Amino acid sequence: MIKRERLAKLTAIEEERFLKLHPKSGELFENAKHSMPGGVPMSWMAKWPGAYPVFIDQAKGARFTDVDGNSYIDFCLGDTGSMTGHSPDATVAAIREQAGKGITAMLPTADAAIVSAELANRFGLPLWQFTVSATDANRHVIRYSRLLTGRSKIVVIDRCYHGSVDETFATLDSAGNTVAREGNIGAPVSLDQTTRVVEFNDIAGMEKALAHGDVAAILMEPAMTNVGIVLPQAGYLEAVQELAKKYGTILIIDETHTISVGPGGMTADRGLKPDFLTIGKAIGGGIPTGTFGMTQVIADSIKKMVELEIIDTGGIGGTLAGNALSLAAMRATLTSVLTKENFDRMIDLGTRWSDGVDAAIAEFDLPWSCNRLGARGEYIFGKVAPVTGADANNSGDFELEQYLHLRMLNDGFLITPFHNMALMCPDTTSGDVDAHTAAFRKMCAELVEA
Q: Which of 59, 182, 380, 431 could form a disulfide bond with 64, CB atoms 3.0-4.6 angstroms apart?
């Protein structure tokens, strides 16, 4: 049992240690507050533990160095955006070459056909379109789903994450009603007008939501990742597919994070057959990218319903979508970095990481556990693996998370700040993983010390 008084004492020690380790970051932060709200270029960056965020100097592979000269093993990897490792050589070379030949012209390049064919081979969906982010990809396929079905509502999973898509920032209240998630600002309409929320792994709940006959699409990850890892129970994903067919609802699978299981994500791994598939982040090696794939049936239906003359006013697409630089980055990343050989290594390291965490948890009899999804692992502050997003959310412990993240940061390890995720990349080594295990074990020992 962890005593809160001891946790507070240890946190205070790490807060003081942080300030001593990062004086230049502190100076940059104070200066940045004059021109940026919260002193950061994007509001999420304010959520790191410590008095201010660490300012980065350079990053390569599985490591980065901050402006104070501190070096870190990076298990956050830009919250999946750099799952390739920072600045992979093949991607950097492709970007340099393309930047000298033109960055964007709103015309296709040869890379577009190469990338779309590679995506089709990996995920099994034959036709692809490109965006600047997975958020945009999700927005676009929701619009297409409404067009094709003539229906208005979207089903999402409780505590899901699909980027900043309006329909997805919903949750269930204690009575089971769809309401806005805490922190959801500026929603255009009440969420119960656009969205139905269902718990993950709840087949009966999914059928109840679809039975109204007004659901255009189900948008879901095949395993939850942003509230912690929640794995699908046996038969769940197959049941959702069958229910979508039964009720004439379009199934959208978001593989942006779940690609951690292999080159074709869980769609290939589990033999899933979605109508649309969306993905972004890692496929560009760190360059902003997104894409969505579709079946031939879906593509043919869209073609019949969309007029070329007014295609630019339909709410699909964007000036920088499919730009030459992003496609060059995707081509190099998919063909040379996110390869089967690299995934095999990353997944083995993910197993090594979770085994080390599990061993430390067991040694000190902590009421925690560890969940893994391929190359991705998570600390969970509960002994039982969560079955739903609500389970995962309820296992959160903000004070403990803040201490854990700050302690690991001070020890030279970066863990994702929004939850407790560690991700392996092609440059991660067994030594990196073992160093984390040793630091994690030492932290656990100090937490339970009398």
A: 59
